[in-house]
Each structure stands twice: as structure tokens, then as C-alpha cells.
Design goal:
This is Beta-galactosidase. It is a single chain. The chain is α/β, with parallel strands linked by helices. It is built from 17 helices and 28 strands. The strands form eight sheets. A seven-stranded mixed beta sheet has the order 10-9-11-12-19-18-17, sandwiched between helices. The protein has a four-stranded parallel beta sheet with strand order 1-2-3-4, covered by helices on one side.
Length: 631
């Protein structure tokens, strides 16, 4: 089948294949005994077909012999259950035996294939994010805490251990946040997630440095996954990878899938800091949720082009062939179970042909220069997301990811250029900055936001923001804590909502409400009974808005229209401008006008200012300035 695979890949326009992600047990069937012959054949076949290889270091799935020899390196859950081999990601990243074995297989692969013509990139691990609560993790966590705090006095203060008698008098008393009688310490829980991110990053950089030494000039990456369980600080990690790469599996269907795809692509573009990046994985069908289904005709190409338009160097998929067996036998493939005589494979071939006709963007190398940023920034901070997932919050319905997705979704529908920024980033270039439920914020980040507004910026802050410092300690004197002066309000108390209420100016409000007192701000919308719900405050040369409840998309869009960052695009139609070309994608089922003209680089036909249902074009730059700017 392999020769047929290469022939089909050539037909589909495949130029890069990830190989060996979960192949550790095939590559090293016993400790120190390597069987590379089958991989030699695969790489030779691919190279002979003109196809490059993203060669994986398979440390995400240790082989059965390793788990039997080193049971202490198996994952331990927070409940104290040691997992057994039989899935993937069953390891402790802090276990010395696992770290040593990871380096051995990395060295063996690099030495074997350092002179082979097929590998053009290294792919370390897969979707980092698995925590462990074993004794190895506990020892590494204590070492990390020593480096972070220096001494126990500082740690006890940061974690407020005086509460519930948790004061630590010896480092040996500290463990990961394992299962306990009631609520765990929120500062400990947050620090553990920070530790896991740093510990996994150390695992990655150890292998990256070895690969750079043995195969200089070959870029090294790992694939990010956007998931609540993944303890990865992507801003920090993106400084360490040679190429940001992401996996994207939208859970929605139809327009919702297009919105989620744009969200992930804009995050990846932002993490990459304006440099090119790569869509490492997507599916030819939906793989999440209770009812899996194929993507509708044309969606494979449209979703892929959303990523390419935002700077991805290509569109990759998991997986090539849908597997006939194994745990993910129902995960879609580029070649489905039906084989190449199928709609899915024909669409994959059409995508390959289309991408092959689009020339590489100007400055498209890994060292290509950054280009102009977007108009509006949404603040994205994984640590704030982790904190909102912590214990004992006043409502279980507070959802940082959902708040960020709503902010992005509303602007995407209006054709407004969006990127993401960390609260500590330089912000003056943005016309507006949106702050979605940023529960956790440092003093330095709060000063950064204040300087942005004082300098003339527009800030739109959603509820449950500015509440706690970086140690999850509540800022006293009234909410929203660090942002009170900027917003000109003082929130006396929270009142989570069991049922929706109607705001006369903005429509339904759900989940959350607050008792807001004006301290310089003016009320733009009020709750039933007259309490302020949405406020506006002049601060320096700029304006800060506060939304003290969860609005639906229509209500949030009206706030943004008043605040300034709203646009006038056609919902469901993307017009994405790069430096030298413009992508237009129609996600609707109707013909739609688009503000572009020129010759479509894909078909060679002129574009007459409209797109048919589900259509897409790529034209040379020259579209109106209202189109969205991306690298």
C-alpha cells in the first residue's frame, strides 16, 4: 500500500508528511535495540516522490516495555491512581527514566537520519499537556517553587496558607494539588499548572537542543492543542519553537466551525508574532461531540484557506488514511475508509491543486519580516484561563474561553481585523483592546492597560476581570480590583443570574450580574430597576467600557458599535488581506458581494465583485483598504 500512498499523495499535491509520531514501540521494540528498516523504506519512498518529511520524535507514547520496566514513570492522577499502558500520553514528564529514554530515542533518530534527504523539519512529541501527580512530579514541583519564591515565607504569603491551617514549615510538606477532602488551595493549583507548562517545555527544549546540535539548520517544532486540559503557556512556548504549529478541530458545524477555525488561526498567528506558522493537524470531518459527521462539500478547502490566509505555510491533516483498527479508527482521513474513489479524497485533491497555484507570500521564509498588525486586540492569557478553571469561584458558568471566542466571533462577523495579545504586550498600535473575563491580572499588566487608555486607546472590559492578582489573591476595596480606576466604577457585590434578565438597551443578559456604583463613569445600559449594567469612562485621552454581565452576540455587538471597533463586513464572508494578495471566502449558502477584484490565482478567471455560495478566491493585492490585514 505504501507505493500506492505515495502515488496518491502526488495526485493530491501533498508536499509534507508527518511520520512516526507514535512509533516508539516500532522503532525501539526493546531497550537499546532499534529497528529502523521500515522507516528507512518510508522515507526513501517519500523522498523519491518529492515529498518532504516532518520527522517526529515519538515521546508522546512510550512503548510497552518501557512502562513495564519503569512503572514509576507512568502517569498518576490527582486521585492517586497510577494509569497503565494501553493508550497514549501515559508517562510522567518529570520521571528521570522517561527523560533519559526520550533523549536516547531522539539521539538515535537524529544520528540515523541526519544526512537523509527526506526530513525537512523535526516534530517533537505530540500535543503537550498531560500532567502527573506522582512523587517525581512532586519533587520537581518543589524545585520549581524554590526557584520561583526563594523561600517558604514568600510561598506561604502567595498561597495564603494561613487559611485552613495550610502553613508550610518544610519544603517536603508540599505536593502537587492531589485529591483532598474539599477545595484545594487555588494558588497551589495555579502554580502547579504553571509548573507543568515549564516542565514540559524543559522536556521539549532538551530534545530541541540535541536536534539542533546533530542536524543544524533543520527547524524544530511541536504541535499545539487548544484545550482546557492542556497546561501550556503558548506565549512562552512560542519563543522556543522554530515554527509555531497548531492542531485545529472545531466542534461546531457550518458557520460555527468557520468561526472557531478563524479563532484558532488568529491565535496561532498572534503566537507566531507575525512570522509564518503551520496548521499541523485538522480533520476532513468533524471528530468532536456526540455525533461525528463529514464536513459539508467545500468546507475542507474553506477551513484550510482560513489558516493559509492568516499566515500558515500550508494545510496539513491528521490523518492520511482512516485507520481500519485502533482507538481512532473512526477519526477521518484524507483517504477515507471508502478509498480514493470518494468525495473526500476528490476534495483533498482539489485543495492540493488550489494551494499549488497560490505563490508563496512575500517574505514567506521562517525569518520573514513581520507586517502590520490588526486593528483590534483581544487579550489572551492562559494563566487567567487556568485560574478561572480553579476551585471555589462564585459561579461554575464563568468561561474564559467562551468569552474570548465571543469577542472574536462578533468582530469576525463584521470583518474587523483581530489579533490576540498578552496583557503585558505593547498595545498603543491597536484601535481597541477587548478584555474577556480576565480574572487574573498582575499590577504591571494593569498599569499597562491604564497607559494604553490614557494614551487614547479604547478598552472594553467584560465582567469578572481584574479581580485577583497573579497569586489568585482577591484585590480588596471593591471589584473589578486592579481596573477600578480605569473603568471609573466600584462593584460592591456579584449577583450570578439563575434566569436571564432583559436590558432595555441591549437585550438579554445571562449568567452574571453585579451591583455597580459609578465613580466617574456613566451608565450606558441598566439592569431592570435602574442599576448600571454597562458603563463608559473617559480616562486620560481614551475611553474604558465595562460590561458587567454576559450579553448575547447581538448585545455585545451593539456595545462594540458604540465603543468603536465594530465593522461593516458581510456576516459569513471573509476578506483577508496579506501584503501581496487578498483571500475572499464565502461561508454562506448564497451569492455574496465581496470588495475585491482582479484575477483569481486559483482558477485564472476574473473576479467580478461577488462570490457564489461556498466560493473562494485569491487575488493579487489591491483590494480596498477596508479589507482585513494579516501577515
Amino acid at each position: 500500500m505504501w507505493a500506492e500512498d505515495v502515488a496518491l499523495m502526488r495526485r493530491a499535491g501533498v508536499t509534507l508528511v508527518t511520520v512516526g509520531v507514535f512509533s516508539w514501540s516500532r522503532l525501539e521494540p526493546a531497550e537499546g535495540r532499534y529497528t529502523f528498516g521500515w522507516l528507512d523504506r518510508v522515507l526513501d519512498l517519500l523522498a523519491g516522490g518529492g515529498i518532504g518529511v516532518d520527522l517526529a520524535v515519538p515521546t508522546a507514547s512510550p512503548p510497552p516495555w518501557f512502562s513495564l520496566a519503569h512503572p514509576d514513570a507512568l502517569t498518576v492522577t490527582r486521585d492517586g491512581v497510577r494509569l497503565t499502558h494501553g493508550s497514549r500520553d501515559t508517562y510522567c514528564v518529570s520521571a528521570p527514566a522517561y527523560r533519559e529514554a526520550s533523549m536516547r530515542i531522539t539521539r538515535a533518530l537524529a544520528e540515523r537520519y541526519r544526512d537523509h534527504r527526506a526530513p525537512v523539519m523535526w516534530h517533537v512529541h505530540n500535543e503537550y499537556g498531560t500532567p502527573c501527580h506522582c512523587d517525581h512530579a512532586a519533587a520537581a514541583f518543589r524545585a520549581w517553587l524554590r526557584r520561583r519564591y526563594g523561600g517558604l515565607d514568600a510561598l506561604n504569603d502567595a498561597w495564603t496558607t494561613a487559611f485552613w491551617g495550610q502553613h508550610y514549615s518544610d519544603w517536603a510538606q508540599i505536593t502537587p494539588p492531589r485529591a483532598t477532602q474539599y477545595l484545594p488551595n487555588p494558588g497551589q493549583a495555579l502554580d502547579f499548572r504553571r509548573f507543568v507548562s515549564d516542565e514540559m517545555l524543559a522536556h521539549f527544549t532538551e530534545q530541541r537542543d540535541l536536534l539542533r546540535e546533530l542536524t543544524p539548520g533543520v527547524p524544530v517544532t511541536t504541535n499545539y492543542v487548544l484545550a482546557g486540559w492542556a497546561c501550556v503557556d503558548h506565549w512562552k512556548w512560542s519563543r522556543e519553537v522554530d515554527l509555531v504549529s497548531v492542531d485545529d478541530y472545531p466542534s461546531g458545524r457550518g458557520m460555527a466551525a468557520a468561526e472557531q477555525t478563524a479563532f484558532t488561526a488568529d491565535l496561532a498567528r498572534s503566537w507566531a508574532g507575525g512570522r509564518p506558522w503551520l496548521l499541523m493537524e485538522q480533520a476532513t470531518g468533524y471528530v468532536l461531540g456526540p455525533r461525528a459527521a463529514p464536513k459539508e462539500p467545500g468546507e475542507i478547502a474553506r477551513h484550510s484557506l482560513q489558516h493559509v490566509a492568516r499566515g500558515s505555510q500550508g494545510a496539513m491533516f491528521f490523518q492520511w488514511r482512516a485507520s481500519r483498527g485502533g482507538a481512532e479508527q473512526w477519526h477521518p482521513g484524507m483517504v477515507p475508509h471508502a478509498g480514493p474513489d470518494s468525495r473526500v479524497f476528490r476534495e483533498v485533491c482539489a485543495l492540493g491543486e488550489a494551494l499549488g497555484r497560490i505563490p508563496a507570500p512575500a517574505g514567506g521564509s521562517l525569518d520573514g519580516p513581520p507586517v502590520a498588525e490588526a486593528e483590534v486586540a483581544i487579550l489572551w492569557d492562559e494563566e487567567a484561563w487556568w485560574a478561572v478553571q480553579g476551585p471555589g469561584l462564585p459561579s461554575a458558568e464563568i468561561d474564559y474561553l467562551a468569552a474570548a471566542q465571543q469577542a472574536h466571533r462578533v468582530l469576525w462577523r463584521q470583518g474587523v481585523a483581530v489579533c490576540f495579545a498578552h496583557p503585558s504586550h505593547d498595545l498603543p498600535a491597536y484601535r481597541a483592546v477587548l478584555v474577556p473575563s480576565l480574572y487574573l491580572i498582575s499590577d504591571a499588566a494593569a498599569r499597562n492597560l491604564a497607559a494604553y487608555v490614557e494614551g487614547g486607546g479604547t478598552l472594553v472590559v467584560s465582567f469578572f476581570s481584574g479581580i485577583a492578582d497573579e497569586h489568585t489573591r482577591i484585590r480588596l476595596g471593591g471589584y473589578p480590583g486592579a481596573l477600578r480606576e480605569i473603568l471609573g466604577v466600584r462593584v460592591e457585590e456579584f449577583r450570578p443570574l439563575a434566569e436571564p434578565v432583559e436590558l432595555p438597551e441591549l437585550g438579554p443578559a445571562t449568567v452574571w450580574s453585579e451591583v455597580v456604583h459609578l465613580e466617574g463613569a456613566e451608565a450606558v445600559a441598566r439592569y431592570p430597576g435602574g442599576r448600571p449594567a454597562v458603563t463608559r469612562h473617559r480616562f486620560g485621552a481614551g475611553t474604558a467600557w465595562y460590561v458587567s454581565t454576559r450579553l448575547d452576540d447581538s448585545g455585545y455587538a451593539r456595545v462594540l458599535a458604540h465603543a468603536g471597533p465594530a465593522g461593516s463586513g458581510t456576516p459569513g464572508v471573509e476578506v483577508v488581506r496579506q501584503r501581496d494578495r487578498v483571500f475572499a471566502i464565502n461561508h454562506t449558502e448564497d451569492e455574496q458581494p465581496v470588495p475585491v477584484d482582479g484575477i483569481d490565482l486559483i482558477t485564472g478567471r476574473p473576479v467580478d465583485g461577488s462570490l457564489g455560495p461556498g466560493g473562494y478566491v485569491v487575488v493579487p493585492a489591491g483590494a480596498p483598504e477596508s479589507s482585513v490585514m494579516y501577515p
